[in-house]
Amino acid sequence: MEGKPRSVALALAVVLVVATTMEMGLVSGAQGICNMTRDELMACKPCISTVKPVEKPADVCCTAIAHADLPCFCAYKNSGMLPYLGIDPSLAMQLPAKCSVPAPPQCK
After folding, report:
1. pTM of the full predicted structure?
2. Euclidean distance between the first and final Cα of the chain, in Å?
3. Is residue 76 within 8 Å of residue 10, measured between CB atoms?
4. Are 27 and 42 in contact (CB under 8 A)?
């Protein structure tokens, strides 16, 4: 069971990286990814940052995760680039649990 939340969390972290690139203007489009807007994705980033991460996710982050397409995030679960992009994988793995969002059964 423990592997499923980790997969979703890592996938979420990768999507947050995409949001970061959108913020920097490298990717266009305001629609976001996996049913989360760019603003919702960016609201989650402070919790998984490698620099001064915050402990508690913002309400907008948890609300967005609760309505996100979590199986979509599973497609990003194996990225090894997270630490290089300022994302702490350990913190990313904790984000769904901090938001009380269960992992979907499709994520393995």
Report:
1. 0.67
2. 9
3. yes
4. no
Place of tokens 């919790």: 47
Residues 49-86 pLDDT 10s: 989 999 999 999 999 989 888 777 766 666 777 677 77
Which tens digits make up the pLDDT trace of 2-41? 556 666 766 676 666 666 655 544 444 455 777 888 888 8
- Structural domains in the chain, CATH included, are 3-98 (1.10.110.10)
C-alpha–C-alpha distance, residues 99 and 4, integer Å: 15
Residue 89: partners with Cβ closer than 8 Å, 6 or more residues away = 10, 13, 82, 83
In 3D space, the residue among 24, 20, 33, 29 whose CA is nearest the CA of residue 74 turns out to be 33
Q: How many residues does the chain have?
A: 108
Tokens 């982050």 locate to: 61
